C-alpha cells in the first residue's frame, strides 16, 4: 500500500450505552458506567486495537427533557477526553464545543491543552447548539436565530484559529544561559474586534503540536454546508441511503472550490450504525433484542423535541403527518435532521410507530443489519462510489457492538486493502491525511514542542 | 492515632519548573516539560508516595507580560487535572476557575465531571481574576471593580452549588425492567434569576461523588476574607511570619461564626516554600544556586505588574519607595499581596534588589531554608501555635524540591504523629476531614454513583 493511496477513515461515535435508545436496557449493558472514565478507556482500547482514526463525543449544555427514559450521553468532553488521552496512544479525540454558548479564549485554550496532553490528537466538533433548553442555562429566552448563530460561529472560529497561531512555532526559546524563555517578538496579540467578540490575545499556551487542532463540523442546512465547505476538515452527516450520500458528497465537495480549497482537504463521514451477526439471522436477532426494549412514550417525546411540536397526541399506528410537519415553518434547531425525518416518512409511507423504530438505532443515520462481509461491502460501496471518505461508526450497543465491529468488520476492510493495518502517524492530522497548517504569522510548519 | 485526632494537611502547589522564578534555568530543570502531562504525572506520583492531601494548579486567562523571562505556569487546569486523575488514585485535585470570566453552567459541569473521573477528588479554587490582561481577552477594558467582582463571585458560587445539587442523590433509577432511567421528580430546575446570571438548570450530570466538590479560596482583602469565612472550606494564604499567620488565622476563623459555621469547617493553609538540605550549609547552597539565576530586569517588571505602577525606573540599590507605594490608591487586582509587599519592605527596610530576591522564591509566601528537622519544627510550630491547619507547599524547583520534601520532611512529620502514614479515605473531603454536604433538595447524604 503506497502512502498516497486513498484510504478509508473510521471514527467511532460513543454515546451512553450505545446509540440505540434502548441499549441501556439490555442485560449486557451497564448504565451506571456512563459516568465512569474507565468504561471509556476500555472502549477506546478496543478502538485502538482496530486502528480507528478517532473517537467523537457529542455534547450539549442542558439536561434533555427525556432523562426519564434515556441514559446520559457522557461526561463533559474536555475533562473526559483529557482523561482518555492518558491511557491511549494513537486514536484521535474529537470533542464538541458550542460557538453560541462558550467563549473563544476558553475553547482555544482547552483544545490547545488537549492537543499537548494527547501529543497532537485533538479535534473540535464546531456546533451552534440546537435547543432552547441550552439557551435557558445562559440567560437567553430562545436560541439566537439560525443564520445569526452561524455568523457568530464564523467569527468565533476565526478568533480561535488566530489564538492557536498567536505563538509562532519557534517562539519558545528556553535558553537557560541567557535567561530568555520565549521571544515576545514571535508571540502576537491578535487584537480581534468583531461583531460578537473582542479578544486581545495572545493565547497563554504555545502553538499546539498539530499547529491547529482539526476542525470538525456536522451542519446539514444550506448555511451549515457553506460553513463546512469553507472551514471544516472532517464532516459528520446523517444520510438515509447511498443515493442521498452521493448527492450530499458531491454537493459539499463542489462548494469548496470557491473558498480555494481542494476536495481532499475535507473528509466526509456519514453516520453508520451496524448491527452485526455472523449470519443474517443472528444479526436480525440482535436487532430484535434492541427493538423489543423501545419505549414508544419516549419515542413520541423524542419526535416532539426534534420537530418542536407536541407529537404526543398522534396515534402510533396512523401515518406520520408529513404535510402538517412540512408546514411548520419555524424550526430553529436541528434543521437538517428535521427534513431528513420528514422525507424518510414520506418516501417510505411510515406510521408514527415505524418512524420511531426506524430512528431508534441511530436517529436517522444510516443503519444496517448484516454479516461482517455484507457490512464491509456496503462501506466499500459508499467509499468507492462517491458517497463517503469514511464513516462515523455508531455502535448501537456497548461494548459488544464495538467489539464485533473491530474484530469482524475491520479485518474485512483491511483484507481488502482499504483500511490501515497499523497506524502510520501519531497525530490526528496524520491519520486523516490532513496537512499541519502553516501559522498565519510564521511559516516554519515545524512542531513547536515535541512530545 | 485516633480518627478524631487533629492532623496536619499538606497541599502541593505545582507551577512551571518550581516556584522560584529562576528555577527553569537550573541544570536539572526541563522547561520543555511544562506542557507535557507526563511531567506532572511523575510529580504527582511522588506526592502520593508522600500521602499528600492534594495538588493545586493556579490559572489565569491571559499571557503574562513577562513571558520573555518566565516559564509558563502549566496547561489548562480542567484538561490537565482530568488527565492526572487517571494515573493517580488518592491525591485531591484543586483547579482554578474565575467567577469573573467563566459561566457557572460550564464550571459546575466541569468540576462535577472531574469529580466523577477522579472518584471524588475535585476541588475548585474560586478566584475573581486579578489583571486587566484577562479582561482584554473577554471584551472588557478593565477588570470590574473589586467589590463588584466579589458580588458576582457570591452569586456565581450559589448557582454552581445549586447545579451540583440539582439531582438528588437517589435520582438515578436505572431500572432496566421498567425502562425508567432517572426520576424527573428528583431532578430540579434551579430557576435562578439574579443580578449577574439567569440559569434554568438542571445540570446534565448527576450529583457528583463528593456531593459538591470542595470550595477553595485565596482572597486576602477584607471582602476576600468575608467571602472565605462564608463560603470556603480550604483557604490558601501568603503570610510573612508566624506572627502574621496567627493574626490571619484567628481573624478568619472568628469571622465564621456569624455565618453559622464551626472553625474546623475551614482549613487554613499558608504558603510554605522550603529549600531543603541535609545540613544548613547544603540548604544555603541550594538557595544560592537559585538566587544566582535571578534576572533583575524581570524582577522590576514583576513588581510593576503587582503594583500597577511602572517600577522600571527605580534604582535597584535604593530603598523600596514605600510611602510612594502606600499612596497609590487604585490597586484593583492583587490587593492583599500588594499590602504584604509594602509591609515587608517597610519592616525590613529593603532595597528594591532585596525585595526582588526576597520574593523570588515564592512571591511573598513564607519561605524557609533549612534541614528537614528545622522545617518540620517550623511547620509543627505554626500548626500547634494557631497559625495553620496545614500548608500549601510550594516546591521552589522541580522535581528535586518536591522529592526532598516527600522523602525527608514528610517522614519527620509522620514520626511526630501529626501527619498520616497512609491515606484513610478516598475522597478529597475525607483527606481534609470535611463532611459530604447534604443536598439542598434531598437529605440522604449517600453517594449517588459509586465508582
Ligand atoms: C453526527 C452528528 C453529531 C452532532 N453532534 C452535535 C453535538 O454534539 N452537539 C450539538 O449541539 N449538535 C450536534 N449536531 C448537530 C449539528 O452540529 C448541527 O448543529 C445541527 O445539524 C444544526 O445545524 P444545521 O441547521 O446546519 O443542520 C450533530 C450532528 C451530527 C450529524
Ligand atoms: C496561593 C494562592 C493562589 C492563588 N491562585 C490564583 C489563581 O490561580 N488565579 C487567580 O486569578 N488568582 C489567584 N490568587 C489570587 C487570589 O485568589 C485573589 O484573587 C487575590 O488575592 C485578590 O483577591 P483579594 O483582593 O481578596 O486579595 C491566588 C492567591 C494565593 C494566595
Automatic annotation (TrEMBL), chains A, B:
InterPro entries: Diverse_substr_monoxygenases, Luciferase-like_dom, Luciferase-like_sf, NTA_MOA. SUPFAM superfamilies: Bacterial luciferase-like. GO terms for molecular function: monooxygenase activity; oxidoreductase activity, acting on paired donors, with incorporation or reduction of molecular oxygen. Keywords: Flavoprotein, FMN, Monooxygenase, Oxidoreductase. It comes from the Bacteria. Residues 30-387 form the Luciferase-like domain. FMN binds at residues 59, 96, 146, 150, 221. It holds the Pfam family Bac_luciferase. Belongs to the NtaA/SnaA/DszA monooxygenase family. PANTHER family: ALKANESULFONATE MONOOXYGENASE-RELATED, C2H2 FINGER DOMAIN TRANSCRIPTION FACTOR (EUROFUNG)-RELATED. This is FMN-dependent oxidoreductase, nitrilotriacetate monooxygenase family. It comes from Paenibacillus algorifonticola.
